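Good morning,

Attaching, inline, the backbone tokens for the sequence recovery test we're adding to the shared suite. The designed sequence is right after.
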């Protein structure tokens, strides 16, 4: 049964403990989009983005802290970030959280989270004189402003998108798992035969009626993906109709890496197995 999603819905969720990423083991009960639970989810994403990134020895010395800066916003998110990441480390680097008072402080950080209240992101990024900072934001324009990863909150769900070009131009290297950061890999439930890497993946919800009927099975899909990575069309090749709609609706929200042309990608999704 699918209960852990590529996005995080700000409400109650649960999954087998063995499948959860440590940084994402939050019980979010009755939470609204403006309360602490949203901040907890975003803090967990920030931690996992930092875990997937690798800086050179010159940018992150062996005995130095990994510095995460927050630009803009009030102290509440900074407090949640500190509380969430307290006593955690990444590759033996202690994590230091800073609330930045000016854009000049960005160069002393390894990752900077731009709050949506920071309206000068475009000019700040354009004038940034280092490629060693992972730039994460939460505004719909952030990627077009030159940001690398953007967290999006819509209908109580947090998801993320990646600016592949900006990542490639940085001096930071990344694990392939960057596109799977929000939780489990689900490799047993979702299999792909893709010529292009998946940058954003939304897992399907197990239809309630199918769960009640204990209906299990697989759905085979073909996704036509535009050059920009968005899914143009999803065709159901085989599978139970009651499961096919949920699978197709999820894949329509996927984002693949950019390419020079449209491609057809094959996806197989298993439910209740």
């Amino acid at each position: 049964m699918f209960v852990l999603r590529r996005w995080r819905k700000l409400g109650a969720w649960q999954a087998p403990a063995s499948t959860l990423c440590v940084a994402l083991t939050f019980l979010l009960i009755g939470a609204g989009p403006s309360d602490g639970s949203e901040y907890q989810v975003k803090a967990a994403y920030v931690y996992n983005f930092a875990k997937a990134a690798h800086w050179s020895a010159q940018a992150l010395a062996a005995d130095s802290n990994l510095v995460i800066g927050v630009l803009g916003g009030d102290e509440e998110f900074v407090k949640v970030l500190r509380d969430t990441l307290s006593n955690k480390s990444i590759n033996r680097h202690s994590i230091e959280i800073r609330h930045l008072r000016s854009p000049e402080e960005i160069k002393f950080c390894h990752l900077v989270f731009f709050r949506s209240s920071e309206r000068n992101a475009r000019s700040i990024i354009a004038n940034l004189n280092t490629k060693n900072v992972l730039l994460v934001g939460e505004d719909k324009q952030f990627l077009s402003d030159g940001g690398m990863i953007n967290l999006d909150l819509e209908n109580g769900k947090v998801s993320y998108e990646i600016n592949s070009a900006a990542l490639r131009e940085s001096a930071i290297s990344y694990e392939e798992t960057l596109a799977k950061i929000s939780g489990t890999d689900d490799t047993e439930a979702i299999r792909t035969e893709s010529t292009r890497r998946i940058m954003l993946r939304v897992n399907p919800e197990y239809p309630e009626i199918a769960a009640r009927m204990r209906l299990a099975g697989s759905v085979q899909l073909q996704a036509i993906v535009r050059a920009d990575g968005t899914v143009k069309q999803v065709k159901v090749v085989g599978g139970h109709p009651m499961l096919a709609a949920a699978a197709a609706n999820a894949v329509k929200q996927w984002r693949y890496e950019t390419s020079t042309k449209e491609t057809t990608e094959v996806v197989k999704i298993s439910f209740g197995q």
